[in-house]
Amino acid sequence: MTVVIAHRGASRAWPDNTLAAFAAARDLGADGVELDVRPTADGALVVTHDPTYADGAAVAHRPAADRAPSVPLLAEALVACGDLVVNVEIKNDPAEPGFALDVADRVVGVLAPWPGRVIVSCFHLPTLDRVHALAPALPTGWLVVSPPPDWIERLHSGGHRALHPHHLAVTAELMRAARQHDIDINTWTIDDPRRMVELADLGANAIVTNIPDVALRVLGRS
What we know:
Blueprint: E1 3-7, H1 19-28, E2 32-39, E3 45-47, H2 74-80, E4 85-90, H3 103-111, E5 118-122, H4 125-134, E6 140-144, H5 151-158, E7 162-165, H6 172-180, E8 184-187, H7 193-202, E9 206-209, H8 212-218
Parallel strand pairs: 1-2, 1-9, 2-4, 4-5, 5-6, 6-7, 7-8, 8-9
Antiparallel strand pairs: 2-3
């Protein structure tokens, strides 16, 4: 069965990365939620996608208490997701404010009470490697737009269990290679019902979508 993950919550209907969007995803029957995490100036972890707030201030340059009321802490978001699987994407780009490998340490610390419910993903592979080094039992998935030629070796050398490619990179050939090497393919972000069915037929382990209710319906699970 292909798992349906709500991208930043049920974000077509609700503001993304908010407690309301996560609760809505749960109520719609999604299997999980994907959310974005960034560190603040005082070491907290807040759930927001962009490196800056609406007023232009960098998330990493402000304490958590100065965030907008709609921006939850990671721990609050985990509670709002109930019993759903939560894909925690660490936003840690060397070109953005606040970049530091030790954000992995903070994320692992917050996720410790939630075994079996979370998977950590990141575009920055060294950050993901650090997560695995700190918590080898915590599932990790490497985010990519398109996998490089050595993606299997890089995943296995870091101890990661999944590849998270953009859906246009998912082909029958990629799925065959993943199955041969015991790697899950969790793909993003798909809002076209026909593509959802194609990816499920290819054997994608999970699809990330802004419209989880539509995905559940077209996959015959509503």
